[in-house]
Amino acid sequence: MALxxxxxxxxxxxSRIDKEHQGxxxxxxxxxxxMLAGKSKEALSVVLDKLVAYTKIxxxxxxxxxxxxxxxxxxxxxxxxxALTQKAVQLQSDLKAGKAMISAPVLDFLxxxxxxxxxxxxxxxxxxxxxxxxK
Length: 135
Known about the structure:
Blueprint (H helix, E strand, L loop, with lengths): L14 H22 L4 H29 L4 H23 L7 H28 L4
């Protein structure tokens, strides 16, 4: 059972960003299913590493669009990206050091953060990007 299901209500109207959001959802769902299957810390760490790397790639793509188009709420959005990146890297480090584990609260945090970020912060740029002809 998926932790997060993509729906059209999550679409920001930019094909590349929508595909990246779906990729992030897929990785969180994979992390969830691997945890439920009782996979080893090492196996979970591999998936978390992929999630962190993909998140950084996605954020860089969004931020390039923000800068190119001079998105007015860019500063606030960049802070959101930096905060999640910092938390994800800390979790990654703690997992490797044996200080943390992938658990239901961690997955709940990732699910809630991603869905809230897409449905609130990212939706805020949907009309702006559309007005600039970004598809």
